[in-house]
């Protein structure tokens, strides 16, 4: 009799399901307080809070004492990972695809599904990539929760600190891997680089973002991710097969619409209306509206060149003969000429308008994009002795533009207004 009562009670408990809360509390079948990033019931009892089902629900959680440790050791948590779920869910790919960029409107898809799938698949077994994705997730969630404005140290959230910690662990693990690079470690470095670019963008640190871009493209070139000429009419195949094409990812990232080009009274991700102004109202000259309109007009042509560049890179990856490569060199020269013509046109438009003060942030982003395309094209099918010096000069220019963009973006703020778009307008000085 007593045995049947115990068995009945056990069956009732087994049928009980906790449908909300963190994974740990659901397994324990107790009510979770749903505090994020870690529930207080797990924290107070010293348990590992395995987080919530989404986003990226296949990740295991981090130990609580690691997440709240005062010091960050780069070698912490770099043991092999045993993920809870092995399948990469389509919604996780879509979410990471959206998390890759904050330069875009939040609901713009970059077309980086394949890149997101590679990152998530690699994160199942590669600790630095896993830490990097966890960092991007935490920092992006913090951004969307706290807003896009400047945040004081006092306002920094646990998610923000957790994101920085995971970023540090990813950087430390990657540095350890690159001490003796092989094909798998180079792949890890390039996938990490994709996420690092996005992490720095979330933090509005475009100077550091440019450094990741420059170093990642250098890795691709030095380790020959695509076939290349090493001497006149001597074509050599790709040195490392299956290396991620970081240049393609970066081009897609910058080809997406720029939120800083939006006109006043736009709706943000929460559905509220915001008013934005790209230059100070006191500095707006006659014809300033034309200045604000040059970004979309110039973007159309630059986006077309970017699409042609992606097609060109696809052909380079498949090249098998010197004759085909020579034809591609002619196509490369034409693309570089198009980029030069685009820049001349941009300067002419700005000269004709004669607007005082800083140019719109959207135009600065176009300059950034223009230099990226030029650097990518210069390195394609070329290992000449003069290339290093030319790339060094262009990389220095890219870094200067990135520094300027970072300062401008940090000064940029979106102010909430009424549904008619009234309210204070933000200024970029």
Q: Biggest β-sheet: count, sense, barrel?
A: 3 strands, antiparallel
Overall structural domain count: 3
Kindly provide the radius of gyration, computed on alpha-carbon positions and rounded to a whole number of angstroms: 25 Å
Order of helices and strands: HHHHHHHHHHEEHEEHHHHE
So how many helices?
Answer: 15
Strand content: under 5%
CA distance, first residue to last residue: 81 Å
Structural class: mainly alpha
What's the overall average pLDDT, rounded?
Answer: 74
Shape: globular
Helix content, binned percent: 55-70%
Q: Looking across the biggest beta sheet, what order are the strands in?
A: 3-4-5
The unreliable regions are 12-18, 54-85, 262-289, 414-429
Q: Got a strand count?
A: 5
Organism: Aspergillus cavernicola
Keywords: DNA-binding, Metal-binding, Nucleus, Transcription, Transcription regulation, Zinc
Domain Zn(2)-C6 fungal-type: 21-49
Protein name: Zn(2)-C6 fungal-type domain-containing protein
Tell me what the structure shows:
Mean pLDDT is 74; it is low at 12-18, 54-85, 262-289 and 414-429. By secondary structure, the chain is mainly α. Helix content is 57%, strand content 3%. Helix 5 crosses helix 6 (113-123). The protein has helices at residues 2-15, 23-28, 40-45, 64-67, 90-99, 113-123, 127-146, 158-177, 183-202, 206-222, 246-255, 288-318, 322-353, 361-379, 387-411; strands at residues 228-231, 234-236, 266-267, 273-275, 415-416. A hairpin with a 5-residue loop joins strand 3 (266-267) and strand 4 (273-275). A 3-stranded antiparallel sheet has the order 3-4-5, with no helix packed on it. A two-stranded antiparallel ribbon has the order 1-2. The protein has 3 domains: 21-53, CD2-Gal4 (Irregular), CATH 4.10.240; 54-203, no CATH class; 235-252 and 285-410, no CATH class. It contains 15 helices and 5 strands. The radius of gyration is 25 Å and the shape is globular. It holds the Pfam family Zn_clus.
